[in-house]
Amino acid sequence: MSVAKPGKVAYVNAHIIDPASGFDGPGELVTVGEEIADIGAKVFDGKPGKDVAVIDCGGHILAPGLVDMRVQLREPGEEHKESLKSGGEAAVAGGVTTMVGLPNTNPIIDDEATVEYVARRARLQALTKVYVYGAATKGLQGKELAEMGLLAEAGAVGFTDGTKAISEAQVLRRALSYASTFNFLIIQHPEEPSLANGVMNSGEMSTRLGLSGIPREAEIIMLERDLRLVAMTGARYHAAHISTAESVEIIARAKAKGLNVTCDTAPFYFALNELSVGDYRTFAKLSPPLRTEADRQAIVEGLRTGVIDCIASDHAPHDQDSKRLPFAQAAFGGSGLETLLAVSLGLHHTEEMKLIDVLRRLTLAPAKLLDLDAGRLAKGQKADLVIFNPHQGWKVVADDFRSKSKNSPFDGQPVQGKVLRTVIDGRTVFESKA
Amino acid sequence: MKDQVFPHRHLLGIEGLTPIEINHLLDLSERYIAVNRSSKKTNESLKGRTIINLFFENSTRTRTSFELAALRLGANVINMQVETSSVAKGETLIDTAVTLNAMHPDVLAVRHSDSGAVKLLADKVNCGVVNGGDGSHEHPTQALLDALTIRRRKGRLSGLIVAICGDVLHSRVARSNFYLLLTMGARVRIIAPKTLIPSGVNRLGVEVFTDMSKGLKDADIVMMLRVQNERMKGSFIPSVREYFRFFGLDRQKLAQAKPDALIMHPGPMNRGTEIDSDVADDFERSAIREQVELGVAVRMAVLEVLAKNNMAFTSAGAGK
Q1: Among the residues of B48-206, which ranges form H helices?
Q2: Is ipTM > 0.90 here?
Q3: Quick check: B239 contacting A, CB < 8 Å?
Q4: Is A314 a catalytic residue?
Q5: For residues B115 and A167, what is the distance between their CA atoms, to the nearest angstrom?
Q6: Is there a contact between B245 and A138 if contact means CB atoms under 8 Å apart?
Q7: B28 CB neighbour count, 10 Å cutoff
Q8: How many distinct structural domains can be found in chain A?
Q9: Region A3-24: what's the mean pLDDT?
Q10: For residue A258, what is the domain's CATH number?
Q11: Which of A111, A143, A150, A172 to mutate to test the interface with B (most CBs of B within 10 A)?
Q12: Global pTM value
């Protein structure tokens, strides 16, 4: 990892993909200081001058750095699982230049001081840009509204109770209603808690393993109810990590009706199914649980059609102790930052999605949704870039992760697409050894 | 003889009143302002009449205002408070009404925490009833005193932009003001977080704003509503702090309104919650004390009209 001082840098011999402008082809990009100074098919008449550092992209893809809209930070409070430093290192290794953290830290991000604390720590410690969501309800208790207005003034980019659903209808109604006063986004973990006391998807597989199941209806019911409240309040609503075929249908219907609704999913849900739980692999214990193959296919289809707007890593780092337990007792969640791009590229390689469309869901779409100044390549824009070889294969070895936590359900799996260089504000913050 | 312009037995709400009726009540009130400011302060027009203040909900200001109004008209006044009445012993609202009715009062001034309760009671008695506030429904004498205050300061109601800010959802003052101001040709805006905006309120003819600086733009009148503290702990509003930041009236937000905009509040004020003391106590701009003063005059006019109408109804045998 080298941190170069940003002077004038020319990225040549690149295949530039920018979902915002639709640019998709051979090109060159120049940064001066922290910003993009020029971009196009041919920026230099002859050779760049001597004052310009030249980086030959070797014909590989140059795209906006990834914007990961769902990451659990663990700092403050659980630095043994992940810190802003280790999380930032993992992020840039995965091509992520901006990440947005959930408020389920300790202390919980439900006051301005904690928002500011995380922002300050992130500036000092994290290689990436870090934003946070504020709690939608005080203490994530799902009872009383949090100070959304003041949290937003301190920098919170949206509101959510993190890995917990805002389950009481009256509370969600008021949260949506209050948020819509300021046009804030409410992000829901759509899972009816009274149905979600199992440990994996409910079905044949859970029956064979003798594990208690979480029925798909937990997600379906919550989404359907929520969307009624969204229609009632006119609020902006985002469903996180949808996992069932019905969820895709429900969101598609809501969008067709003109509701202010968006959603994301995580690579787990379009790359894996419940069979990954296999022989009680706790790394595949996720929330929501991995579903059936038909669900996985429907999630892929949702991404292809655009019903699913964004892909987020849903990075949920856990230490060994939290996962080396009987399945029922193990923690939910998987490490995701370092596999986000490679697994998502599978949509291009095997599911025939256009590369630019995959990248849109990883860059421009989340940036626009959260109103972040990121996710696009344009003159004057901060130079947050990723250069990757979409074809290079490698094997996920969780033990090699930069993340403190190695709980990847993709551990041991071959993937295709390697991050070669990550640039933030014109500085190279990650360079692949290979 | 019944009042020619306002021939009604009760004043249960502003909704349904005509501009002529409203102006008439305001004109009558105007006459009593001078009486209230004189040293004698009395007028014997209701001498020998009986007014009962029947308050099922705590109140100091409104009850005192009604009581003074009745005393200054020379009437006999009884105050019945819920704590001391037989209602506390389990008597129903209708039983209370029938009992009081048997004592032949001329006018009952009634406040109740349930919307529609005053109407229910009025249907069961032979005397006049003035609504002193029912639940979140209406508070007609408050709207009349607000209108009188505005009319005296601005010379008119028609064409003014009145911004009503705060807990519109639970406010009877807001509803009575909507009806009155819209009937008189004013433009009414409400400004509140969406959690405090009643559903379908735009159908009543008011303009809805959620941003103070936009809603106050060019307003002639800024009417602040009280927000109950128990609604500020996360159910409707996250906190007092946040409410004041975004919806409390301070100099900065007030700067959007017209330079001579009048500040009003039905009281009691929560200083530092919905209004900054600096603004509330501004002698030039704040009409808050004047509202209280004119409240007595308005209630004198209303009690007088209803008591006189009641005599006519009773002698004509029109009341059942």
Answers
A1: 61-72, 93-101, 117-122, 140-154, 172-183
A2: no
A3: yes
A4: yes
A5: 31
A6: no
A7: 19
A8: 1
A9: 89
A10: 3.20.20.140
A11: A150
A12: 0.92
